[in-house]
Amino acid sequence: MAQLSQPAQNCVAQDEIQQQLVAGLLAAHAHTSPKYLYDVLGSRLFAAICELPEYYPTRTETAIFALHAQQIAAAVGPDAILIDLGAGNCSKAARLFPSLQPRQYVAVDISVQFLEEAVNALQQQFPQIEMTCLGMDFSSELELPAALGMDRRQFFYPGSSIGNFAPLEALMFLRRIRKGIGSSDGSGLLIGVDLIKDKAILNPAYDDSLGVTAAFNLNLLHHVNRLLDADFRPKDWRHRAFYNSEQHRIEMHLEARHELTVHWQNGGVRRFARGERIHTESSYKYTREGFVDMLQQAGFGAVQTWCDPNNWFMVCHAQVA
Ligand code: AVI
């Protein structure tokens, strides 16, 4: 198993992270990037969310991949270089190996350490696939090492993670992927997208009855405390998640239970009134037509789509033009 790391992108400077966080906390409408939801505990809580009965995206996407495995494999084509963006424990890609039969698998994620364990285990199971780990923050930069071949590159971006970008950022991200794919025939993008639906389904998916999503959201405060040496107390805050039907997005916020003041390093301070919120994540939902249109605006050619019987979730394959 090869490990390619890109030092310049691998470790975003600590002070850049701190400046970005402080700017968000001091904004009139306080906000933080959703990436701060994912420290070690946050990643485990997210894995637990994916098992919740209310959180339909994971199991619905898995069912689409299983039900349409042959058609999806025909769209992707064999012998691809499968580039898994945000690979995590690599389980989603691994389930597709038997049908997709890629020649090479490139697992990309911010933490290369976490990837290594997963990819090492996978390599034993699939010795015929050449495997590579790549540590990079692909949300801001998607420059792949030249050592990776250009022929039959297939990017894989499942889980509706595209929904965590605002629509304009999503379009720019898709353009970066389109650029990174190159123009060889048989290259493309396989992506999972969550669709607009009734808020009676959407709201509980982000505000579950066990409170796992609440813990996931509140855990961001522990993470920010470590990053900024701040004194947020999770018990002073309440999880809020709701569908904003004008913006077609779930919004997650942390809401102050009472008036409070938070301090952080170098004399940083912010007072929050009772009920004031920190916006921690948006999860945009799309129509089939709207997302296909975005893929085409990003420079992709033919698009194939597969949905579940309820039309809750969609898997798309977009070819290079
Ligand atoms: C990772 N991402 C696609 C999840 C979503 O549904 O937007 C993150 C999440 N936030 C709360 N629950 C799940």
Based on DSSP secondary structure assignment, what is the total number of beta strands? Answer: 13
> How confident is the prediction overall: mean pLDDT?
94
Radius of gyration: 20 Å
Number of helices: 11
| H/E element sequence | EHHHHHEHEHEEHEHHEEEEEHEE
Task: Order the strands across the largest sheet as they lie in space.
Answer: 1-4-3-2-5-6-13-12
Helix-strand makeup class: alpha/beta
Backbone shape: globular
Low-confidence sequence ranges: 6-11
How large a portion of the residues is in β-strands, by DSSP E? 25-35%
Please outline the major beta sheet.
8 strands, mixed
Q: Which small compounds were modeled alongside the protein?
A: N,N-dimethyl-L-histidine
Question: What is the percent of helical residues?
Answer: 25-40%
Q: Could you give the distance between the termini?
A: 32 Å
Question: What do you see in this structure?
Answer:
By secondary structure, the protein is an alpha/beta fold. 37% of the residues lie in helices and 26% in strands. It is built from 11 helices and 13 strands. The chain has an 8-stranded mixed β-sheet, with helices on both faces. It has a 3-stranded antiparallel β-sheet with strand order 7-8-11. A two-stranded antiparallel ribbon has the order 9-10. Helix 3 (40-49) runs antiparallel to helix 10 (212-228). Residues 6-11 have low confidence and may be disordered. Bound molecules: N,N-dimethyl-L-histidine. N,N-dimethyl-L-histidine is lined by residues 49, 57, 159-161, 163-164, 206, 213, 281, 283.
